[in-house]
């Protein structure tokens, strides 16, 4: 399959899905119709006989008729995908996948590797799907907004909030420990003018406790750290060193992802 994690080609979005319900769903049943993660909620609600009431309309549909092998026609549907950075989109029907990095059209049952671009051969179908994809993208952009939403802090039901490095915004010479921010940590904090920020939205007023996990060389003990949220400021001092080595997992070839290390609270 073309594509990998993070892409909108078949290899970036396709996965197996297993569902087990003894004596209700036949063992070994294989469903060939396309489905997606958007179908899980309506499917489980339908199987449980629960009304699925949501503030916004659901994009998914219930797969119960397929799981229960019920008679009836199944709609020729379309499932849409968006890359994490919002730069690329694709649409998948039972027969075709359109869009992606090359804006092509591929017949998936015959061409799982997306090698044969049929955009010119099926030009009308390609134009129709690309038009549907453009309309869906505009609808989603209007719904979720162009800017990322702030991280909610202070829900009473979830009193502990982690602000991870991957969601932070480094300033100055500070950077992540890898070109991939996820599962990384910050390095290079040497200047007092540098800092790290998170876009947060405090849900409830009150007193909050802040805990920082860190690594520190002995010569940097005594460094002061200021935490600010709005007009509130809190200052702390690093009073003990903590030196730890990277865990290289015995790699023979260095990876681009961040290696792990221990930190002190």
TrEMBL record:
Q: Residues in domain N-sulphoglucosamine sulphohydrolase C-terminal?
A: 10-92
- Does the keyword Hydrolase belong to this entry? yes
Listed A to Z, the keywords are:
Hydrolase
Q: Does the keyword Hydrolase apply?
A: yes
Entry's InterPro entries? Answer: Alkaline_phosphatase_core_sf, SGSH_C, Sulfatase
Gene Ontology MF term list: arylsulfatase activity
Enumerate the PANTHER family for this protein: ARYLSULFATASE FAMILY MEMBER, ENDO-4-O-SULFATASE
Q: Which family does it belong to?
A: Belongs to the sulfatase family.
Protein name listed in UniProt: N-sulphoglucosamine sulphohydrolase C-terminal domain-containing protein
Q: What species was this sequence derived from?
A: marine metagenome
